[in-house]
Amino acid sequence: MTTTYYVKAEPNGQFAACSYFTDPQCTQPVAGNALVVPPDASACEITEAAGSELALLGASYKTLGHAAVMTDHNFSAATAGAVSVVMPTTKTVSKGVVLIFSTRSTVAMLYPSSDPVVTNGDE
Length: 123
Fold this sequence. Notes:
Layout: E1 2-12, E2 15-21, E3 34-37, E4 43-48, E5 55-63, E6 75-77, E7 82-86, E8 94-102, E9 110-112, E10 117-120
Parallel strand pairs: 1-4, 3-10
Antiparallel strand pairs: 1-2, 4-7, 5-6, 5-8, 8-9, 8-10
């Protein structure tokens, strides 16, 4: 099972200012940057919303509380404007996520997001 959130991003200096929503029409905003999925969700999908100024390229994520080590298990390239953050189904964790965006058409600049946190619990 996967839970989907929608993101709109716009450039803000060298970073992407992001707004998150629970619906594709972007009428149900998520307060702050806490993305919560059910405990049995195997992934949190973050999809580029219609009207986003920036294009979603990928995401890097890491379980909070563990050493910050980059491996091929904590990066996801965007496919068709969506990235998937893999979540365990046997324990509750929080993962810090950095979404990577670019300008549309010709990539002139990359924009990292502020860090949303994905939690698989009732927080």
